[in-house]
């Protein structure tokens, strides 16, 4: 049976910190495409306080979450236990995009901060058990090949708007002086 929590208590925060993968769901206010994105690696979802979480938003092929948050703020973060006892936790709330003016160096476009107003868990009986075998090396290799200037160009060219034309990441600054 599912349970509602008043806040992210220390025990739940500890469980969240052990999960290697989480998902983020968002949608525009009217029509458009609903988006669900897998996020990781372990430790990239940080508990700020009992009602706030945040994660680094890495440069990627789309910018749906940022565009949806700028348009309406609605977001859901979902975590599933792939190891140990079955469990699903959902953090519903309002998100904000804290854009990094220069994503070139580390490949981080922004920090997504979520002000959580609903914390719920459910059984997770349908989630399979999976063995973690390691992180994929492709992101780091892509960043090396692109170089910081190439990453800035990529964000400027591919992440300015969402699939539905909503503003996501506009001006990207050149390298910091």
Task: Describe what this molecule looks like in 3D.
By secondary structure, the chain is an alpha+beta fold. The chain has one domain: Roll (Pnp Oxidase, Chain A). It contains three helices and eight strands; from the N terminus they run βαββββαβββα. A hairpin with an 8-residue loop joins β2 and β3 (35-39).
Entry keywords:
177 residues, alpha+beta, Pnp Oxidase, Chain A, 3 helices, 21% helix, globular
Summarize the structure.
With about 180 residues, the protein is α+β, with helices and mostly antiparallel strands. It is about 20% helix and about 35% strand.
Domains, number: 1
**CATH C-level name:** Mainly Beta
Radius of gyration: 17 Å
Strand content is 25-35%
Distance between the termini: 55 Å
Helix percent band:
10-25%
Supply the CATH architecture. Answer: Roll
Q: What count of helical segments does DSSP give?
A: 3
Helices and strands: which structural class? alpha+beta
Stated plainly, the CATH topology is called: Pnp Oxidase, Chain A
Based on the structure, what is the oligomeric state of the protein chains? single chain
**CATH superfamily descriptor:** Electron Transport, Fmn-binding Protein, Chain A
Order of helices and strands: EHEEEEHEEEH
Care to count the β-strands? 8
Shape: globular
What is the topological layout?
Elements: E1 3-5, H1 10-18, E2 22-26, E3 35-39, E4 45-49, E5 52-58, H2 64-71, E6 74-80, E7 88-99, E8 108-122, H3 138-158
Antiparallel strand pairs: 1-8, 2-3, 2-6, 4-5, 5-8, 6-7, 7-8
């Amino acid at each position: 049976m599912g349970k509602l929590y008043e806040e992210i208590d220390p025990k739940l925060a500890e469980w969240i910190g052990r999960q290697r993968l989480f998902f983020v769901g968002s949608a525009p206010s009217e029509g458009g495409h609903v988006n669900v994105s897998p996020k990781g690696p372990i430790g990239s979802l940080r508990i700020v306080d009992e009602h706030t979480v945040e994660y680094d938003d890495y440069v990627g092929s789309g910018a749906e979450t940022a565009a949806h948050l700028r348009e309406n703020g609605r977001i859901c973060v979902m975590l599933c236990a792939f190891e140990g006892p079955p469990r699903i936790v959902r953090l519903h709330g309002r998100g904000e995009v804290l854009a990094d003016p220069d994503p070139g160096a580390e490949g981080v476009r922004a920090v997504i901060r979520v002000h959580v107003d609903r914390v719920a868990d459910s059984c997770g009986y349908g989630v399979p058990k999976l063995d973690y075998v390691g992180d994929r090396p492709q992101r780091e290799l892509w960043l090396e090949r692109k170089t910081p200037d190439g990453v800035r160009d990529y964000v400027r060219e591919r992440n300015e708007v969402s699939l539905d034309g909503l503003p996501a990441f506009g001006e990207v600054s050149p390298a910091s002086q």
